[in-house]
Design brief:
heterodimer, A: mainly beta, Maltoporin, Chain A, 2 domains, globular, B: alpha+beta, about 15% helix
Chain lengths: ~800, ~325
């Protein structure tokens, strides 16, 4: 870990000098630039390759489909490539700046194969990016899924380095990081709870998603705010050429997506909605029971529009609204949801300088209400964000691509706004809101040093101000670690008054060394800082979990990760293989005292502990991209541990989601134009559990006790599961695409009761027993079949 | 508040105290309630199932357990000294005999306990008035096999139970039709009073882990800000038994003729935390609740060994002032 300031300064200077300033204003170069799009829908293509054959170099389109490449005057052969699309090759005489928008055709249907990558064929090897996984939405839709619902989060759990504490648990763990260490972005706005129904489904409607990219390491400087990963989800822009509708009827959701031009070739929209409908089906059955007012449903709605003002300006407005609602009686119940709104403005200053300004608003909230009349308990909690994020990309020359920008996020945490009435008396247990401003600036460059070596390096400087109005507390620190710390003093702060400030330099560095045409080695180092903390001491994260800012008592988390990888493509890029090893060190990880009170607790900080974490592992990935049979094999060998003063006798112990082995095998077989079969096999070693060894009897209660007082000291049995699905397309008609299809799926084919956890309890029956028992819980105890119908017209 | 506690209340509201131990093979059969929730989409949750297992545990190192909860009720005061046993050992824990136990108060009075059965140490008899008085501080001292175990506890004030109200209710959200009781009492003004509400049905203590009913002021926890209030509804209603028939259908708590008894025991803040931990550790459920469990941990004792804090002894010493009320359930229209 680089700690010393002088070292940082040297790094920063070295960084500045690496950029060839002499080239910044080079006049002899001309630029070819434009957008790369899908011919049929006008949807921009992310990561399409532009290759200059004479120079044996190129670039890729950015997340808005824009590319720019500057070269000396001359004649060039330029090819535009995107997997699953026909390559376009053009001869260009470059004697002035050229604007060239390209529309690529999807490959002829007869030749179409299941494609599971969305980039240049050899990007695995040739790109400087490492520790990055992309999943094409078509692939996600073909992975056998729980109840037939294609699911982004569950799909990425099949990739190397990604795991979960157990099925049904919300969120995901990346390279030994916690669920709260992932930045989940939907069109640049953070989504705080990515799950429906406690964790069984994720909140993204696959019909509205265009691109999914997971960054596990080598995280570029433009991303920040979370330690372990970035899940960058981009929504579709909508068909700019013609109106279309798609949707489906599944076991859980019904889905409908509408898209089309607002003004042809100028602007388009997409509206996508999903809703669970079991409650609708159930309504007649519960009409005359005390359950008639019960409600249980969840929905999400995604809206997006974009408009091209002129060649230099394009604007986007997107929104997401999703909610889970459990109502058991009139307005009593529990609900939670996310709302995000993003406005973006793409502006081309010139052919080489692309900019995007994002302004977003994100809100996660939950509310609970029990009781009526004289006895009511009503509580809601939310986290609001307002953010501005300018970003600039300067395409200096084919060898340098400069990115710089900044971000400011204003946080408003509302931990608990409550109304409580007991026997007609009203109490307010509302906690103060907490305010904070997180800001960052960054500068990064992607540089090709030679045919063999390319680099991506940058520096992010981030700052966090924890601000008033509100009270800040000091706690006694002479308490035995692991016990609750009492409040020593309180200080009241005014609006905007700084309570505490933290800053971090976050260097980021990746390099690629091309060994030969089909193989490369890559290395990366990144430091990430995280200023907000997900406070959760349960096995799986749940909708009640509260986010809390770094305060005068909670320091920001900081992680340093190094990764090293070997990448190889075989048989003309039909196979991609990679091996990566990583080591991650985390500081100031938040933990909890035993029996901590995490909710509606003014003195929450007194129940929190700080520790350090470490995670290391090796990831093996083999993917077959083309042919009738495609798929991948992913295997991760990993360890994730933490050390917290006051827990586990102050010794290192494994995180609850630690898994030594994690293997996924995903296969797709295209039998003919009507049938495609998919399978998925997952094997994970058991996660840890805390076992007692003894019991004591107090006042008739039999209480577990552990002589060793160790946390996560035992492993639950291994997890393995096989799923199948088959996709049936209707008979092909003349001049008509196969637009509707059926999916039949079987989840947990061999009906295994996979253990989620083991718990110890004194049973409730018979009364006055002195029994103690242990139970192994399986969240899904049986095979789960499902059918869904999907259409598009 | 604890996450678990809130989720537990939500679950109880959804399932009204129904146990969620679902037999893996009869998921879809059980009863109308389950079929309704199946239709409502919760069948996912209900597919969770569990199997009893007997894993191998680390070998036992027996520890001394001191169970000393003294109170202001008349009759015997009892202190048990036992050893911890292996977790799955269902036999009586070994008694620790031969201890000399003296409790003294801050006025200089001393009370000697005598061993009447192995490991059972008693002061007084059925007709004795308790020596535990409001705001007095008591010290426990135990001499056992050359070691001295000691602890201190204050007997705090306890509010009177104003009334017990019994209500006949219709079936509601799976909660069966029947007689439901609640007690009314008001927490003292001044934050930080902690209570253990113990209830009895026909003289039998409702001692299931799920029936542990604790109050911090008039609500669940220190952050509750319910100082000086009437106890909140879940605490008032927490005196009903949690019983089920053999089909795991909830039973109505009371019938006409049943006697409801409520006792409010004042407990120290430390004892409140101890009992809250006991409730957390003993009242664990499977099913989807398993998603939201926190790891088990060791309870924290207030008993010192030879003047030092230690992890070689477990249990608790507490002194309570007790107020109580009884009511016989009457037939209602």
């Amino acid at each position: 870990m680089i700690k010393s300031n002088s070292l940082l300064r040297i790094l920063f200077l070295a960084f500045l000098f690496t950029i060839p300033f002499s080239n910044l204003f080079a006049q002899s170069d001309f630029t070819i630039s434009g957008y790369i799009k899908d011919q049929a829908s006008g949807e921009t293509l992310i990561g399409a390759a532009v290759y200059i054959e004479e120079l044996e170099t190129g670039t890729v389109s950015n997340v808005y489909g824009f590319y720019s490449i500057s070269m000396p005057a001359g004649d060039y052969t330029v090819s535009y490539r995107y997997v699953g699309y026909e390559t376009i090759t053009e001869k260009i005489s470059l004697d002035s700046n050229i604007k060239k928008d390209i529309e690529l055709n999807e490959e002829n249907e007869e030749l179409e194969e299941v494609t599971i990558t969305a980039e240049a064929e050899d990007a695995n090897v040739s790109s400087v990016e490492m520790s990055v996984n992309k999943l094409d939405i078509k692939t996600i839709q073909q992975i056998p899924s729980l109840l037939g619902e294609a699911d982004i989060i569950r799909s990425i759990q099949l990739l190397p380095g990604v795991s979960t504490v157990g099925e049904g648990a919300s969120g995901f763990n990346v390279r030994g990081g916690g669920v709260g260490q992932n930045l989940v972005l939907l069109d640049e706005a953070p989504v705080y709870n990515s799950s429906h129904l406690l964790g069984f489904f994720s909140v993204f409607n696959p019909d509205a998603v265009k691109d999914v990219k997971l960054l596990k390491g080598g995280i570029p400087a433009q991303y920040g705010g979370r330690l372990s990963s970035i899940l960058d989800v981009r929504m579709k822009e909508g068909n700019i050429k013609k109106f279309s509708a798609s949707g489906g009827v599944g076991t859980i959701f019904s889905r409908l997506t509408l898209e089309g031009p607002i003004v042809k070739e100028k602007g388009s929209f997409v509206v996508a909605g999903r809703r669970s409908y079991a409650d609708v089906l159930a309504a007649p059955f519960i009409a005359n029971t005390s359950f008639s007012d019960s409600k249980l449903y969840f929905y999400d709605l995604t809206l997006k529009g974009n408009y091209k003002i002129n060649d230099k300006n394009r604007i986007f407005l997107s929104g997401y609204l999703g909610r889970d609602v459990f109502k058991f009686d009139g307005d009593q119940g529990f609900s939670w949801g996310n709302t995000t709104t993003t406005f973006r403005w793409n502006h081309l200053f010139n052919d080489r300088l692309f900019s995007n300004l994002t302004v977003f608003f994100s809100d996660y909230d939950y509310e609970i209400k029990f009781g009526e009349d004289e006895d009511v308990f009503e509580w809601n909690s939310r986290i609001l964000n307002y953010s501005v994020k300018p970003e600039f990309t300067y395409y200096l020359n084919p060898k340098n691509e400069l990115t710089f920008g900044g971000q400011a996020i204003l946080y408003d945490f509302e931990p608990a706004t409550t109304q409580a009435i007991s026997a007609g008396e009203i109490s307010s247990i509302t906690l103060d809101n907490k305010y904070a401003l997180e800001s960052a600036i960054y500068l990064a460059n992607q540089q090709t040093i030679s045919e063999k070596i390319s680099l991506q390096y940058g520096l992010r400087f981030s700052m966090f101000n924890y601000m008033g109005p509100g009270s800040a507390y000091e706690y006694f620190d002479d308490v035995t670690p692991g016990l609750r710390r009492g409040v020593a003093s309180e200080e009241v702060f005014d609006r905007w008054e700084t309570i505490e400030t933290y800053t971090n330099f976050e260097p980021r560095f990746s390099m690629k060394y091309q060994l030969d045409a089909t193989s490369s080695i890559k290395a990366s180092y990144n430091r990430t800082a995280q200023y907000i903390h997900l406070v959760s001491n349960t096995t799986a994260s749940n909708p009640l979990d509260v986010w809390t800012p770094s305060t005068n008592n909670i320091r920001p988390m900081q992680a340093d990760q190094i990764a090293l990888g070997y990448f190889k493509n075989l048989k003309e890029n039909a196979y991609e293989a990679s091996v990566e090893v990583y080591y991650k060190d985390i500081q100031n990880i938040v933990d909890y005292i035993d029996g901590a009170d995490l909710l509606i607790n003014r003195f929450l900080e007194g129940d929190l502990l700080a520790g350090e974490g470490r995670a290391f592992g090796a990831e093996f990935y083999l993917k077959k991209n083309t042919g009738k049979f495609t798929g991948w094999l992913s295997y991760t060998l990993a360890r994730s541990e933490r050390l917290v003063n006051g827990i586990n006798n102050n010794e290192w112990y494994p995180n609850r989601f630690d898994q030594l082995h994690n293997l996924s095998l995903v296969g797709f077989y295209k039998l003919n134009n009507r049938w495609t079969f998919s399978m998925n096999f997952a094997y994970n070693s058991g996660t840890p559990a805390t076992f007692p060894n003894s019991r004591l009897e107090v006042q008739g209660y039999i209480v577990p006790h552990s002589n060793s007082n160790k946390r996560n000291n035992v492993r639950i049995p291994d997890y393995h599961r096989l799923d199948f699905s088959a996709t049936l397309y209707p008979k092909k008609k003349e001049n008509r695409k196969n637009d509707s299809y059926w999916v039949f799926s079987l989840y947990n084919v061999y009906n295994r009761r996979n253990p989620f956890s083991i718990y110890f309890t004194q049973p409730d029956v018979p009364r006055d027993n002195n029994l103690t028992q242990a139970f192994q819980v399986a969240i899904f105890g049986s095979i789960i079949p499902a059918v869904s119908y999907n259409f598009k017209f | 508040m604890k996450t678990r506690k809130v989720l537990f209340i939500i679950k109880n509201q959804l399932f009204k105290n129904r146990a969620m131990k679902i037999n893996c093979f009869s998921v879809f059969a059980k009863n109308r309630l389950i079929s309704i929730y199946t239709l409502l989409g919760l069948f996912l949750a209900l597919q969770a199932c569990e199997d009893e297992i007997t894993p191998t545990l680390d070998p036992l190192e027996p520890l001394v357990t001191i169970d000393a909860w003294l109170h202001s009720k008349s009759g015997e005061q009892v202190i048990y000294i036992q050893e911890t046993t292996s977790y799955f050992d269902q036999s009586e824990p070994p008694a620790r005999s031969g201890a000399e136990i003296v409790v003294s108060d801050d006025l200089g009075n001393t009370f000697e306990f005598n061993e009447t059965e192995a490991g059972k140490y008693v002061w007084g008899d059925e007709s004795s008035f308790s020596f535990v008085n409001t705001n007095r501080i008591y010290e426990l001292e135990i001499n056992l096999d050359g070691d001295v175990y000691s602890a201190v506890s204050e007997a705090n004030r306890s509010p009177t139970v104003d009334s017990i109200v019994v209500e006949k209710r219709e079936e509601d959200l799976g909660q069966p039709a029947g007689y439901y009781a609640q007690f009314y009492a008001r927490d003292f003004t001044g934050p930080g009073d902690t209570y253990w509400i113990r209830s009895y049905k026909n003289g039998e203590y409702l001692g299931k882990p799920s029936e542990i009913n604790l109050a911090y002021d008039a609500a669940f926890s220190a952050g509750g800000n319910f100082d000086g209030f009437t106890f909140i509804s879940p605490i008032r209603e927490g005196i009903n038994p949690n019983d089920e028939d053999e089909n795991e259908e909830a039973l109505p708590p009371f019938e006409p003729g049943d006697v409801v008894r409520v006792e409010i025991w004042s407990i120290t803040n430390g004892a409140f935390q101890f009992l809250a931990d006991v409730a957390d550790l003993t009242n664990r459920e499977g099913g989807t609740q398993a998603l939201f469990q926190s790891p088990i941990f060791n309870t924290k004792t207030n008993i010192l060994l030879n003047g030092q804090t230690t992890d070689k002894v477990v249990g608790y010493f507490n002194t309570s002032m007790v107020n109580s009320l009884e009511k016989t359930v009457e037939e209602q229209e």
